Amino acid sequence: MVFLTRRYRFSAAHRLHNEALSPEENARLYGKCNNPYGHGHNYTVEVTVRGPIDAATGMLIDLGLLDGIVEREVLERFDHTHLNLDVANFKGKVPTTENLCLEIFNLLRDKLDAIGQPARLDKVRLEETNSNFFEYTGYYPDPAERAASEKR
Amino acid sequence: MIYLTRRAEFSASHYYHNPQFSAEENRRVFGKCNNPHGHGHNYTVEVTVAGEVDETTGMVLDLKDLKTVLENEVLRIMDHRFLNEEVPVFATKIPTTENIAVEIWNLLAPKLPSGRLHRIRLYETQDLYVDYYGE
């Protein structure tokens, strides 16, 4: 089993705002991220897939296929958009980087499973800035199990 | 338990070709990586060793020893080489980043002076890397 990670970049605007909260609560909770005009980031997304090396090709996955899926599902959907206003995925959901990370994982997992190769989505790591990143792995629901596996 | 990682760089050329595929199939599967003259990368390898801290030395292993093993077992064999032609294991195995990572593991694991090899991370470019944990 090997793990392969590929890095992609996109830029988008967002505003952290929850309609269910009062303006004061939103301002207190989200601070300058609640600015009604929104603000933007250069996001870096790292997509990790895991699986066996194909004996005939020496590869885990055809990188062209992976690039195509990420291009269609993530970059075309999110790049140069306002996440709150332009993207259906965030109707009624605050586009925090946590939620964006989960959304990207869910978009990619199903498409990767559908190409009929043994590679499986392992992790999405989303950097909002150089100092801020979020990781989501679907296959270790229990953090203790994940920690135990990392101590192998 | 503590994890120590040492990074090293090497440059090498390779191409992707399976002799059991037809010429057309090789081009379709491997694209521009199938160019028989090869192409090159600056690889970065990160070797992570897991172990307990020795009470006398305060170290997991002597970094000089790790550096020497890395130089002798990996860099001497792969740096500034055409992997397909000059590294014996790749005469019968395609030198993809996946297979190179596994090979580096196989070269290093039995030679570590102390500690246990935990992970090989091999960057082919800044935007692409492979992790192998030995299984």
Query: Helix amount of chain B, in percent?
Result: 25-40%
Oligomer: heterodimer
- Give the strand line-up of the largest sheet of chain A: 3-1-2-4-5
User: From the coordinates shown, what is the CATH architecture of chain A?
Assistant: 2-Layer Sandwich
Name the chain pair with the biggest interface and residue counts per chain: A-B, 20 and 27 residues
Order of H and E elements of chain A: EHEHEHHEEH
Q: How far is the first residue's CA from the last residue's CA of chain B?
A: 20 Å
Number of domains of chain B: 1
What share of the residues of chain A lie within helices? 25-40%
- Distance N terminus to C terminus of chain A? 14 Å
Shape of chain A: elongated
Strand-pairing-aware structural class of chain B: alpha+beta
The proportion of residues in beta strands of chain A is 25-35%
The helix tally of chain B amounts to 4
